[in-house]
TrEMBL record:
Provenance organism: Aphanomyces astaci (Crayfish plague agent)
Keywords: Dioxygenase, Iron, Metal-binding, Oxidoreductase
InterPro entries found in the cross-reference section: P4HA-like (IPR045054), Polyketide_cyclase/dehydratase (IPR019587), Pro_4_hyd_alph (IPR006620), START-like_dom_sf (IPR023393)
GO molecular function, one term: procollagen-proline 4-dioxygenase activity
Domain annotation Prolyl 4-hydroxylase alpha subunit: ranges: 59-230
Cofactor: L-ascorbate
The name this protein goes by in its record: Prolyl 4-hydroxylase alpha subunit domain-containing protein
GO annotations of cellular component type: endoplasmic reticulum
Source taxon at top rank: Eukaryota
Length: 379
């Protein structure tokens, strides 16, 4: 079965920026003008949340020889003009906001627009003219790059396919019942080879051509190596300080409920063994053994899953000039059931790694995860 790889990210709600409160609320507009600091508080028409200011504004709305006033009363109708004339004569409180409130169930934006324009016409300060905010270009969240490394050769099938990429000359991949595997760019696994591709354009937009999927191998095993990258502000010592506290992994690993160690605390890390108790994916327990530890750049543990061997690892390198650390988290899965595990993990692995690295960064930099302090565990 052709499996499309998907990224799971939280999308942002930009509704408040597109429809700011000052667009449809008289009170918010007053606050908006005050925050501009372009009108002196001593100005006779300085906007205030007061009955006196609303009486001044209502008087301006009734003045003749104003294109804005004529347009507003044409829109509202003569009955509303008579209503305002009566309340101005009575010097009633909060005349303008009362009228706008009457339109709230229908559309307060249009009358408020005329009221703002009349005030702007009289005050004559261009910088106080209401404008919709200039929106920064919305950049959809996504990782910038993905790296696949192939750990074995596959004689037939197993391609990583980019169906929206132009089909190169000489592409002869054909799969019965799977037209997706015959379209676009297909990369066949070769031991020691890899695929590095960018998910975004340099300007930040998602690159639709990065859509990709995996085709099953006709024979053999498809082993996959996936990296998720993070640029952090902590140093290598802080990275290792978090990783070596194995019993505290559940603090930042979103999939772990508990870790127990089967070896004494004095055991060297490379010989440490224990059991992982999973929080997600139906729970379960997995024995693990830490291996290939390098305090300056690499940490790894092995666990046997049904039908496969897996190595879960972290690598990092510190920039010599600015002290920043590039950190990667990944997993290698190989064995007879590698394809099944790949399909089972694919829907969850991306978001899980992303959350783990985000928690790891917060813990190493600030000693906190989700606002909870854990510094006492890492001293």
């Amino acid at each position: 079965m052709y499996k499309v790889h998907t990224d799971y990210f939280t999308h942002l709600d930009v509704g408040a920026e597109v429809n700011p409160p000052a667009l449809k609320s008289f009170s918010h507009w007053i606050t908006w003008v005050q925050r501009l600091n372009v009108i002196s508080p001593h100005h006779p028409l300085y906007p205030r949340h007061s009955a006196a200011f609303e009486l001044q504004l209502a008087t301006l709305l009734l003045q003749p020889h104003s294109i804005v006033n004529d347009a507003m009363w044409k829109y509202l109708g003569p009955a509303w003009k008579v209503w305002m004339q009566e309340h101005v004569a009575l010097k009633s409180d909060y005349i303008v906001s009362s009228m706008i409130s009457a339109f709230r169930p229908v559309n307060p934006v249009v009358p408020l627009c005329y009221i703002r324009q009349r005030w702007e016409e009289i005050v004559g300060v261009p910088d106080a003219t209401f404008r919709l905010p200039l929106l920064a270009k919305y950049i959809e969240p996504n990782r910038h790059a993905t790296l696949f490394l192939y750990l074995n050769n596959v004689d037939e099938g197993g391609e990583t396919v980019f169906p929206l990429h132009p089909t190169p000359p000489g592409n002869v991949t054909t799969r019965a019942g799977m037209p997706e595997c015959s379209r676009g760019l297909a990369v066949r696994p070769q031991e020691g080879g890899g695929v590095l591709f960018y998910s975004k354009h340099p300007s930040g937009e998602n690159d639709y051509r990065s859509l990709h999927g995996g085709c099953p191998p006709a024979n053999g095993t498809h082993a996959l190596f996936v990296c998720y990258c993070l640029l952090t502000m902590f140093n290598s010592d802080e990275v290792f300080n978090v990783l070596k506290r194995v019993e505290h992994w559940p603090v930042w690993d979103v999939d772990l409920k508990k870790v127990t160690l089967d070896t004494p605390a004095s055991t060297p890390l490379n010989s440490t063994k224990g059991t992982l108790f999973m929080k997600n994916y139906g729970g379960g327990e997995h024995a693990f053994a830490i291996q290939n530890v390098d305090e300056a750049r690499h940490f790894e543990y092995y666990t046997r899953l049904p039908g496969v061997d897996s190595e879960w690892y972290w690598t990092w390198s510190e920039h010599p000039t600015d002290g920043y650390v590039d950190m990667k988290m990944g997993v290698r899965v190989h064995g007879g059931a590698a394809l099944l595990w790949r399909g089972a993990l694919a829907p969850f692995l991306g978001s899980a790694f992303d959350s783990c690295l985000r928690n790891f960064k917060s813990l190493a930099e600030h000693g906190q995860v989700d606002g909870q302090d854990f510094t006492h565990l890492y001293q």
